[in-house]
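Field reference: sequence -> structure
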Amino acid sequence: MPTTHTYPGVYIEEIPSGVHAIVGVSTSNTAFVDFFARGKIDQAVEVTSFADFERTFGGLDPRSEASYAIFQYFLNGGQTAFVVRVGSDPKTSEGSLAGGYGGQETLRVSASSPGEWGNNLELAVDTAHIDAKAQLVDPTLFNLLVREVVTINGSRRVTNLETYRNLSLSKASPLYAPTVIGASSRLISLEDKGLAQPPAPTAGDPFGQPDKATWTKLTDLADPAFGSDGTTPLAPGSVAVSDSWATSDGQTALIGDQGAHTGIYALDRIEPAVFNILCIPAAARLDDSSSTSGLSAVYSAAAVYCEAKRAFLIVDIPQKVDVPNDPGQSDSMVQWLTDHDGLRAKNAAVYFPRLLIPDPLNPRMPRNVGASGTLAGVYARTDGARGVWKAPAGIDATLANADIAVKLTDPENGILNPLGINVLRNFPIYGRVSWGARTLEGADQLTSEWKYIPVRRLALFIEESLYEGTKWAVFEPNDEPLWASLRFNVGNFMQELFRREAFQGGTPKDAYFVKCDADTTTAADRDLGIVNIVVGFAPLKPAEFVVIQIQQLAGQSAS
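Structure field:
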């Protein structure tokens, strides 16, 4: 805004440049929704390594398909995952610490999340109100010690240990126990159940007189090294979520409720962050006999949700579809997709066959897993090395730590590929690779413009980046200055993609266009508060078939 000129001299005024640089969003943040051994229910948690996943959700669990998918995701190049734990009627291990005047319940102690894991928690309390010289400090202070103990090969081992010193039961204290535990503990939560005022202590007896007999001392630790004599197990909890995947409970838990932001809709809560890929490996274990329930219902809901969120879904197939040494395995996959034709969507892809991976929990027997977690890692690795416009397929798209459950030949591959089924192959020298790049709308007969995965994912990337990068224009005056600024900023973003070879064409004019003017935004649009920006781009499509023509030359007579 111009300054008021009152004195003779030089005035400096800054003029806005109109530059609002649009930054490309992530392309391979992957969301996993499933049952896990521990962790908050229906809350999306960001993890950036498998070790991070282990700390928060308990690591590998034979009942959890997604725990293995996340393991594969990070091994194959994944960087960021959003993990949602779901379940039906989960129970939490809990217990109470008795103390206070008259031995009443003082604190309710609960495992930090539902599940059987809470049954491994032990705790001990040590009064901390006497200093080294036996002088009274504060009769309400105490130490709380919590540990998780598991039995491995018959031996008890402490896997997690937390120590909290000089906690207080005074709500006015900065060391108020429920607040400190709530902010710091990964293992437990505390609820203050109320503490009756004890008799006034004296220097000679910190527990007070004459009512010493009515005061129940909080459990002292006999062994400062946290020996078992000073620990108290929590009351048993249960985990109904682990046993319900074959029933409608599994379907209900995975889909969730959009209004309550549960199931897949818990991902709404990660805003302003975004997820780009969705994997629901547990869906492949659901009932597969109906086209309207079980697996079909979960993936149908997920496909609709991904389209609304500009994300991409990787569908896992049931284990029964690919049977090793079955000569008709490709036919069974064709029949399965025919029976589930409603799953065809432009924002989804399916891979065949399933994978075999080493199982750290059972080294003698490889585990048969869906391919979604592994392929999500391949997507991430390809995006980082080449860009989202490069197909996550070919000899560079190797599958780390995985073998192919069913070996396919070229003719069998040729049956599946035209139907939009991406095949995983095992080649000499190159090893296990992804050998397909089609969406579920990629069947030749559909003639869809979104036939190829890199084309669709590039479009989603551009859409999400422009969605986030043009919010500044909302409520700006709807006239040529705004249109010019939008053309400039969107054009710069598209030009940067052109320089990175994301489009076809040798010149920007051939590769993309951005239009925002009186032709796209009419007077009627302006009356309605609408500004229209039209963006076009020429995508790079993968060279799916390499044809080499060889001709024999006839002998030439000498001249």
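Note: The first strand starts at residue 30 and ends at 34.
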